[in-house]
Amino acid sequence: MLVDLLLKSIAKHVVLTEEEQAFLCSKVSQKTYKAKALLLEENEICHHSFFVIEGILQSYNIDEQGVKHTLSLATTGWWIADMYSFLSGKPGQLYIEAIENTTVLCLHKDDQQLLFDRIPKIDRYFRILIENSLIANQQRIIDNLSLTAEERYERFCAKHPTIKDKVPQIHIASYLGVTPEFFSRMKRKLLTK
Amino acid sequence: MLVDLLLKSIAKHVVLTEEEQAFLCSKVSQKTYKAKALLLEENEICHHSFFVIEGILQSYNIDEQGVKHTLSLATTGWWIADMYSFLSGKPGQLYIEAIENTTVLCLHKDDQQLLFDRIPKIDRYFRILIENSLIANQQRIIDNLSLTAEERYERFCAKHPTIKDKVPQIHIASYLGVTPEFFSRMKRKLLTK
DNA sequence: CGCGACGTTGATTTGCCTCAACGATTGTGG
DNA sequence: CCACAATCGTTGAGGCAAATCAACGTCGCG
User: Fold this and answer.
1) Which residues fall within 8 angstroms of residue B153, CB to CB, at 6 or more apart?
2) Residue B182 Cβ under 7 A from any strand D atom
3) Any atom of strand D under 7 A from CB of B133?
4) Could you please report the per-residue DSSP string of A29-63?
């Protein structure tokens, strides 16, 4: 079953009973999106968190000049959402888009709350994920402040080996904060070393 | 009492009984640091969260070239810690330093856990803080990707009006990710507008 | 007083961007 | 199933934002 992947992810942090697993399964729904499909657009309210089963999702915003800036890339086993909108219930600034054909599990915010109330271990699971996400984001800020684009790319490759070769490099450039042109030159330079 | 400030911060999110407040108070200790004092150094394990009563704290790391990079600035009513080290129990990369004479409340990780067990509302309080911190950090990443230094400075001023004029601008430059020299020119340019 | 931290200003350099042109690949509709 | 458009990656030339290096004035403080 597709939901097994989610159960495995949860099992890494907390242990659920069979009934709890069943209740969880009853609250998530499976969906498949084609490449380029938008799961969320700017100014929408993000009601769902998405757990990627297969494929890749990207969250980004678009600045005044129309340039995309990638906040996160999520592949198999990762959650993605517009956390600001999801938590505050207000319209957000992020788009969430399928980079390739992608299958996800959707969890509605209200259902997540039900799960929290009924199964405190689920609450703990998401708490750990949020903590890890905070730590990763702080590290990314420090990297942005202290490393060159080249060093950031090397860290990205080390940290996300699965993503590195699967997404068009235009998106990695956008994640790192450089233009596709510069990223192309940079990569070639690294190869000759 | 100094701890009133913390109780007020908590009261914004959850309601504690008198006994719960008393228990909380028994677990935090007050400390005062002189300007330039280090509360935490690189490679140390961060055992405490610090709640600023009066003064300003700064968390930063130092890169290979010896340059400081500011992760956060915390003034009255804010918490600060090396979240990675605090949560993982491993040595961290951050320094925490008093920018001016500063009075804080210290909360040991073990005591925080005691509070979580005894008072679920405290758990909820910190959870909200962590969520807000995650959102703020994600916004900062997006700002770093999509805005010029000038625009980032304007947002910083809007978001942290209390800090803006209180800390040496060398630290704001470091927070924004520019050199003190460039920050100086930038500020002058903004004044002439 | 004198030292150290901070801020400013100037000259020069550089990392990265912009604009433009051009293959290669892909997928999609006719 | 092919033709065409769209997307992606690469390369070149030129430009700009921000860094670097250096010098100097100011202030607070031991």
Assistant:
1) B172, B176, B183, B186, B187, B190
2) yes
3) no
4) EEEEE-TT-EEE-TTS---EEEEEEESEEEEEEE-
Give A8: exposed, middle or buried? Use CB within 10 Å, 0-12, 13-18, 19+: exposed
Within an 8 Å CB–CB cutoff, is residue B130 touching chain A?
yes
Q: How far is CA A1 from CA A6, A48, A73, A105, B90, in A?
A: 10, 21, 24, 12, 37
Q: Are A163 and A56 in contact (CB under 8 A)?
A: yes
How far, in Å, CA of A53 to CA of B11, rounded? 40
Beta bridge partners of residue A80, listed in sequence order: A50
Closest to B136 measured CA to CA, from A104, A56, A134, A152: A134
Q: What is the DSSP string of B12-66?
A: TT----HHHHHHHHHHEEEEEE-TT-EEE-TTS---EEEEEEESEEEEEEE-TTS
Q: Which residues of chain B have pLDDT under 70?
A: 193
What are the pLDDT digits (tens) for A119-147?
A: 999 999 999 999 999 999 999 999 999 99
pLDDT greater than 90 at residue A2: no
Residue A193: pLDDT above 70? no
B177 beta carbon to strand D: under 7 Å: yes
Instruction: Give residue B12's pLDDT.
Output: 97
Q: Give the distance from CA A143 to its chain's centroid.
A: 19
Q: Which of residues 74-93 of B touch A (CB under 8 A)?
A: 83-84, 87-88, 93
What is the pLDDT, as a whole number, of residue A57? 97
Q: Is the pTM of this model over 0.90?
A: yes
Q: Which residues of A touch B144 (CB under 8 A)?
A: 141, 144, 177
CA distance B65 to A90: 42
Angstrom distance, A173 CA to D9 C1': 12
Structural domains of chain A, with CATH: 3-119 (2.60.120.10)
Read off the pLDDT of residues A37-89 as tens digits, 9 standing for 90 and up.
999 999 999 999 999 999 999 999 999 999 999 999 999 999 999 999 999 99
